[in-house]
Write a structure and sequence with these properties.
With 201 residues, this protein is of the alpha/beta class. It has five helices and nine strands; from the N terminus they run H-E-E-E-E-E-E-H-E-E-E-H-H-H. The chain has a five-stranded mixed beta sheet with strand order 1-2-3-7-9, sandwiched between helices. The chain has a four-stranded mixed beta sheet with strand order 6-5-4-8.
Length: 201
């Protein structure tokens, strides 16, 4: 756990998020470039919670981590995806994780507008015993896959894109550090939970 603590606390995030962070570290992605459980202020008193961010030479990778079982059906542009359980007997809708992560990226872009104008890459990672069935129409700069495909996705992003032109790399890091530190605030986390509950009522 000493390796894990170079990035985050064992008490933060879901077990799937923690497994992702550990995977990144074990594949020698530097701890200073990894940020977990960020709370980025959207407007006064309202925050976007981002599962994980990695700063790379080609831009910023933003991760949305999901933990589902069953079959998953979805289209990159529709509002809701479907989880199918018990061989079709149970169906549950959930908000499109591509659109969810797009919102997170828009918030982060706005926050970083003064210190960095770099590409963003969206990666949606599914943990759990699920099968992605007919998930299609994935937007550009967006990747959807299982936990085992995280490193190949990162390698593809690094190999197929030119170096990013960071205006102020330390400025970017400071914004991300502050967002990660916000997750230590009970007041910020609780306020975010209440806002999410209001939205999904």
């Amino acid at each position: 756990m000493a390796l894990f603590r170079t990035v985050t606390s064992v008490k933060r995030g879901t077990w799937s998020e923690r497994k992702l962070i550990l995977k990144l570290l074990k594949h020698e992605i530097p701890a200073i470039t990894i940020y977990h459980d960020l709370y980025v202020e959207r407007c006064r008193g309202q925050y976007s919670q981002i599962d994980a961010v990695v700063v790379t030479r080609v831009g910023i990778i933003v991760f949305e981590v999901k933990d589902y079982s069953g079959w998953i059906f979805g289209n990159g542009y529709q509002n809701y995806w479907t989880q199918v359980l018990a061989y079709g007997k149970e169906k549950h809708k959930f908000y499109n994780p591509i659109l969810q992560n797009k919102g997170h990226i828009q918030t982060l872009k706005k926050k970083l507008s003064d210190v960095g104008d770099v590409p963003f890459y969206s990666v949606v990672v599914f943990y759990g015993e699920c099968t992605l069935m007919n998930v299609r129409d994935i937007p550009s700069y967006t990747y959807v896959g299982y936990a085992g495909s995280v490193m190949p996705i990162i390698e593809r992003i690094l190999e197929n894109n030119p170096p990013a032109n960071y205006k102020d790399k330390w400025g970017v890091i400071n914004v991300l550090r502050e967002a990660a530190a916000n997750g230590e605030s009970w007041d910020i986390v609780n306020r975010h939970i209440q806002n999410v509950r209001k939205y999904y009522r």
